Amino acid sequence: MSRYELAYEGHRRPEGRAGDPLPVELVDALARLVGPGDVDVSEAGRVAYARDFWPLAAAWFVKGRLAALPEAVVWPESPEEVAAVLRLAGERGVPVTPYGAGSGVMGGAVPVAGGIALDLKKLNRIRRLDPDSLVAEVEAGIIGQVLEEELNRAGFTCGHVPQSMYASTLGGWIACRAAGQFSTRYGKIEDIVVGLEAVLPSGEIWRSKAVPRASTGPRLDQLLLGSEGTLGVVTAATIRVWPVPEARVGRSYVVPDVARGLDLIRGVLRRGLRPAVVRLYDETEAARHFADVPEVAGHPMLVVLCEGDRELAELEAAAFDGAAGAAGYTPTGWGPVEHWLKTRFDVSLSSYLIRGGGLFETIEVASLWRDATALYAAAKKGIEAVPGTMLVSGHWSHAYPEGVCLYLTVAAMPGPGEHEAYYRAIWDAAMKACGENGGTISHHHGVGLVRAPYLPRELGPAYEWLRGLKAVADPKGILNPGKMGLGGAPAEPSTATSTSTAAATAAIPPEGSGPAPGAQLDATEGFDLKGVTDCAICPNICRFDCPATRVDPREGVTPSGKARLAYLLATGRLGWSAEAAELLASCLGCRACAELCRFHGFSLPDNLAILRAPAAAKGSLPAGLADLGRESTRGNPYGEETAAVAGELTAAAAALTARVASAVDETEASADGPVLFFPGCSTLRLRPQAAQASLNLLARSGAPWQLIGPPDLCCGHAHMAAGRPDLAAADARRVQDVIGKAAKATGAKAIVTGCPECAIALGRRYPERGMDLGLPVLTLAAFLAERAGEGGRTDQGSAPPKSRGRLVYHAPCVLARELGQDGLPADLLRRAGYEVAEPEGSAGRATHCCGGGLFYDRVSPDGSRRVAAGRQEELLRAARTDRPRTAGVANADVTIVTACPFCEERLGALDFTELLDRAAGRGAR
Fold it and tell me: Per-residue DSSP letters for 697-718?
């Protein structure tokens, strides 16, 4: 039984209560509309949609409370499917909460009325790009960074870069009238949108005409901009685009105080100039962000970034230089600008503070220039006066000729049981300051649940017009009820307990206590609960880099979604299920999420792998992994499948050894011990040609070597991935015994393997578990590179021809991220005379996954195929061809090559050893 509370419990339906699944008959009806695979009523699947990134909901989460649960999650793939779902929901009176990527911070995507969470991420295409008109028609579910990358490839930019760029959608931007960091040049989203496509609550599809301007009465599409899904579901928009900027020029200055910093900005903007970024930090934020700039001590900092046509960008920068110089302000160069560019997506402080029992909130408001300093002073003073406040700071961004946006940051440590009261108090103080100092209560985060109580005062009599419009447009009140104070859902959280959890409320820790002592599962040794908690309440900016998330729209597959599930499972607040285990296993282990993660040293894939053991113990592993974890008499998880290949390799090794022995003069023989070659069971199963080529290269290298036998031994990685640490330990003991005997008998000096995962297991994971093999472990690429550097022979000593052909190299993520050897295979191939292209995502820690990591292909075959197809497209794009690839060859001139059996199997690629072997004429010297 699950052990969590639901904060919102106001919705009641005849069939059940909020948080309970929809009736089977209604689920079946939804499945007929969108397909059975696009409806989820499992608890694990619905938990991922329990909240957005509203800070108060994150604070609830670590105390055992979820904001709310939808009764079903639905993924439509077209406007017509959205329309069909809304018609059905209207007929049955089922609430619908539109959902983009859940990065909002106002509770706008929290399903307070239960019902359907309508996830739009399958509507994710750029339908058309019109370079002459500088517009693009784009579906609403596309992630911001995906949109920007696709536009960049065509030579354009959207110009909208919010802090949530990696974790928000076009539809979400439209829903709350979002602003990007470059809004001073490109405008907010309402300035960028030219036309909309939306589904109205009645189920009708409406499309506005995409034109630059019109005089045809009130702009109805403007009613949907900022309506937060209460008046319709936006499914696509025609947006303005711009050519990719020719140049980018940055400046920074230390200013005496915020008032004079604001005057400097105002003076430049009133000249008609439009720099992309203008950010003025008060002295508190300046000290936090730019501590390494000596001049900043005790003073505000102004950061400016100009981009576009080179002459214009330099002119804008020069205008700031002139104004700052005339005032005698201190220029501090490009460094602070570069620092901002590198850290502008870092939101980790919020997670650290909330996990520790505190609160972290941001409040953005806006005013005319004349009110800017007074609004700042009043809001800061009011929030500081609330007991529990530790820090209030601010910066100004999104500047316009008429005014500016103030962005306040609040860090607090309320007392136990006081989070809700404190939260409302700081918002009351900030909103009061707006009312008394000419400010608007929101600049770009929207209203949602948080600002709903203040909206009637903000809009005055127009608020009743808005309520009347909602009543006419959505008479049954199904669309996102409760948001902006509209609809019949509760405006405030309740203290009621979900019917599915009533019997277990006594086990829930009190507010402020964090995870219950001893709640972590027994079988989770090494599980980093603190790190998983940070990840679970982080705004998920790493989702863009996760290859599984790119092809799977489910929120439970995102890094933060998996961390939420892991947290609930590890603390016993959620019961194990097949659905939960499948979501946790939807990970490729590529560690791409870590590249945008600010929680240093934390690895979500490692922690998810640890949870596979209790999942296996409870019979909850996905079928593909359960099969992988079966007992084997051969010492590897594939059983007899590799026996024949292993036998052939043993015979080939013996023949090569005999040939080499007869060809080597005794005076030429090395006094060093041999290297022990460990092929790896996955190599033998997936790419036996690579194992044979490796033997040939070892024989040709001039170094003594010996094949470890039996050659199909498993390092333990496969069984560990399958949640069977017992079998993995048995694998490791077997390998340790075989290698120990071989080393003793031969005086071996190193272990060499062609499988990156085996190299990690033997060289790193074994010692971590007290099983040091006593020998260095080298990848074959590292060994061959070392031999080549020492003058060793890897190509029969012949000079390579001018070119042996074109190759496109895919760097395996394990080789790149964990071993730092991504470039070695490509370098060896170049030495052998090949022309090697290394496309985007093929270098260092930024490499992209093939789709086969951590046996993801067994968990989600379709997802794995889609990841692989995307990677193949990148590789072929780098080869400047769009002709179809067959049998590992893109066309007659281009071959895909890599250095990992899993990558080779997924991409249909050749192993680099096969190409080196081919270049050297196959066979020993």
Answer: HHHHHTS-EEE-SSTT---SHH
Structure tokens at 61: 């989460």
Strands (E), 51-175: 65-66, 72-74, 96-99, 116-119, 126-130, 135-139, 156-157
Question: Rounded to an integer, what distance in angstroms lies between the CA atom of residue 696 and that of residue 701?
Answer: 9
Q: Which of 201, 226, 230 has the alpha carbon at shortest distance from 480?
A: 230
Q: How many CB atoms lie within 10 A of CB 253?
A: 26
What is the helix (H) or strand (E) element at residue 793, kind and residue range? none
User: Number of C-alpha atoms within 13 angstroms, CB side, residue 475?
Assistant: 5
- Judge contact between 275 and 182, C-beta under 8 A: no
Q: Which tokens hold the place of 838?
A: 């290394």
Containing 806, the helix (H) or strand (E) segment is strand 806-809
Tokens, residue 242: 């711009």
Question: What are the φ/ψ torsions at residue 860 (nearest 5 degrees)?
Answer: -135, 80
Quote the CA–CA distance of 853 and 506 in Å, as a whole number: 41
Tally Cβ neighbours within 10 Å of residue 333. Answer: 12
Contact 751, 773 (CB under 8 A): yes
How far is the C-alpha of 587 from the C-alpha of 561, rounded, in Å? 12
Contact assessment for residue 65 and residue 493, using Cβ atoms and an 8 Å cutoff: no
184 contacts: CB under 8 Å, gap ≥ 6: 269, 274, 275, 276, 277, 278, 398, 399, 400
- How far apart, in whole angstroms, are the C-alpha atoms of residue 487 and residue 227? 13
Q: Is 143 exposed, middle or buried (0-12, 13-18, 19+ CB in 10 A)?
A: buried
Task: Give residue-wise pLDDT tens across range 100-139.
Answer: 999 999 999 999 999 999 999 999 999 999 999 999 999 9
Tokens of 807: 């190759």
| Contact between residue 201 and residue 211 where contact means Cβ atoms under 8 Å apart | no
DSSP 770: T
pLDDT value for 102? 95
Q: Which of 684, 902, 705, 672 is nearest to 784 (CA)?
A: 705
CB atoms closer than 10 angstroms to residue 736: 16
Alpha-carbon distances of 221 from 121, 199, 590, rounded to whole Å? 21, 12, 42
Region at 250 (left for phi over 0; alpha for psi -120 to 50; beta for the rest): beta
DSSP conformational letter for 640: G
768 by Cβ neighbours in 10 Å (0-12 / 13-18 / 19+) ranks as exposed
Shortest CA distance to 824 belongs to which of 917, 918, 899, 712?
A: 899
Q: Could you give the C-alpha distances from 272 to 215, 315, 349, in angstroms and in order?
A: 26, 12, 37
To which residue do tokens 């970024």 refer?
277
pLDDT value at residue 724: 86
Helix (H, G, I), strand (E, B) or coil at 561: helix
Q: Angle 285-287-290 (CA atoms, 0-180°, nearest 5)?
A: 100
Give 406's strand partners.
365, 396
| Cα torsion angle, 254, 255, 261, 265, sign | negative
pLDDT score for 656: 84
For residue 777, the cross-strand partners are 751
Between the alpha carbon of residue 425 and those of residues 6, 429, 506, the distances in Å are 23, 6, 29
Residue ranges in the chain whose pLDDT is less than 70: 1, 10-21, 488-491, 494-524, 600, 629-634, 639-641, 659-671, 790-803, 843-844, 880-893, 922-925
Contacts of 257 (CB under 8 A, 6+ apart): 299, 300
How far is Cα 106 from Cα 86, in angstroms, rounded to an integer? Answer: 24
Q: What is the spatial distance between Cα 869 and Cα 863, in angstroms, rounded to a whole number?
A: 10
Q: What is the dihedral of CA 266, 270, 273, 277, to 10 degrees?
A: 20
DSSP one-letter code for 16? E
Task: Record the pTM.
Answer: 0.91
CA 649 to chain centre: 41
DSSP for 57-68 reads HHHHHTTTEES-
Give the torsion sign (CA, 88, 91, 95, 100): positive
